[in-house]
């Protein structure tokens, strides 16, 4: 412990002697002969040496600010202030980055929502276009079917045929004739798209034959209307007198009525 004290004391004496030399030299220097000339005062030296403004002595050497907590705090305060500024700048930049990121995320979300909405509208438009195309195809199909139906309204084909015979001078229907008409007319109840053609033939000549064929045809029509409720507008009557049929000789067969059921082609297709 004594050796350390002697070393510190010696160091202090050496530093004191070194600093005292300039002072002695300045004292012994010759004074200027020109007393009238005023010299500018020398600026105070800045305390940048080891002692930092303290007198170089043993006491100050032992209690130098390097060993003082306040000195350390005073020297490190600018660094702490700069660090605080850096922390504030970092916090400000972080907040700005977060704000920009939040705005970017919000913008992306809005863009995504608008994109989804646009996709939904596009899908709805596609579905509506498909529905419109389907409706147009259905309408076209219905129009084609209607045109086909209209074109085939007057297209009738023979479905069945029966022949009713009469004795000379007779106009009443026999039981066999009624049975034949019943067999033809019974299935026609509540049906449509059909017509019944009644053609009357009678032997003889001239207007007499025509009148006779008209009477027997009226007997057939009257039975169909009254017994089977066949509408009159669906029955077409032809009184042909003694006109021969396609390969027939009316004079050989006597009076008769040919009844033909004609159906429309459209009904046959359904």
Can you summarize this structure?
The protein is an alpha+beta fold. The protein has helices at 2-28, 58-62, 69-151, 175-185, 206-228, 250-253, 265-269; strands at residues 156-165, 194-201, 235-239, 256-264. The protein is built from 7 helices and 4 strands.
Structural write-up:
The chain has 270 residues and is of the alpha+beta class. It has a domain at 156-269: 60s Ribosomal Protein L30, Chain: A. Helices cover 59% and strands 12% of the residues. It contains seven helices and four strands. The protein has a four-stranded mixed sheet with strand order 1-4-2-3. Helix 4 (175-185) packs across helix 5. The radius of gyration is 68 Å and the shape is rod-shaped. Mean pLDDT is 76; it is low at 1-9 and 17-37.
Structural class: alpha+beta
CA gyration radius, whole angstroms: 68 Å
Uncertain stretches of 5 or more adjacent residues: 1-9, 17-37
Question: Order of SSEs, N→C?
Answer: HHHEHEHEHEH
Number of helices: 7
Helix fraction bin: 55-70%
CATH architecture of the domain at 156-269: 2-Layer Sandwich
Question: Can you give the mean pLDDT?
Answer: 76
Please give the alpha-carbon distance between the first and last residues. 132 Å
CATH class of the domain at 156-269: Alpha Beta
How is the main sheet built?
4 strands, mixed
Spatial order of the strands in the main sheet? 1-4-2-3
The portion of residues forming beta strands comes to 5-15%
């Amino acid at each position: 412990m004594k050796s350390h004290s002697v070393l510190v004391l010696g160091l202090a004496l050496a530093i004191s002697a070194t600093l005292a030399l300039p002072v002695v030299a300045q004292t012994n220097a010759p004074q200027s002969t020109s007393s009238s000339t005023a010299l500018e005062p020398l600026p105070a030296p800045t305390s940048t040496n080891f002692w930092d403004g303290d007198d170089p002595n043993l006491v100050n050497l032992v209690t130098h600010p390097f060993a003082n907590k306040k000195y350390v705090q005073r020297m490190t305060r600018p660094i702490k202030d700069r660090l605080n500024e850096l922390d504030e700048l970092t916090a400000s930049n972080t907040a700005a980055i977060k704000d920009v990121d939040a705005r970017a995320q919000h913008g992306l979300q809005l863009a995504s929502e608008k994109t989804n909405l646009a996709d939904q509208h596009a899908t709805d438009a596609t579905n509506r276009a498909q529905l419109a195309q389907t409706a147009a195809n259905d309408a076209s199909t219905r129009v084609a079917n209607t045109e086909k139906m209209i074109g085939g309204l007057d297209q009738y084909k023979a479905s069945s045929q029966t022949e009713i015979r009469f004795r000379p001078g007779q106009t009443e229907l026999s039981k066999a004739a009624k049975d034949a008409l019943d067999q033809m007319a019974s299935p026609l109840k509540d049906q449509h798209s059909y017509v019944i053609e009644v053609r009357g033939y009678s032997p003889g000549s001239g207007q007499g034959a025509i009148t006779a064929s008209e009477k027997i045809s009226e007997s057939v029509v009257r039975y169909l209307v009254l017994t089977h409720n066949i509408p009159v507008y669906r029955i077409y009557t032809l009184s042909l007198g003694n006109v021969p049929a396609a390969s027939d000789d009316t004079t050989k067969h006597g009076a008769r009525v040919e009844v033909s059921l004609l159906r429309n082609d459209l009904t046959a297709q359904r």
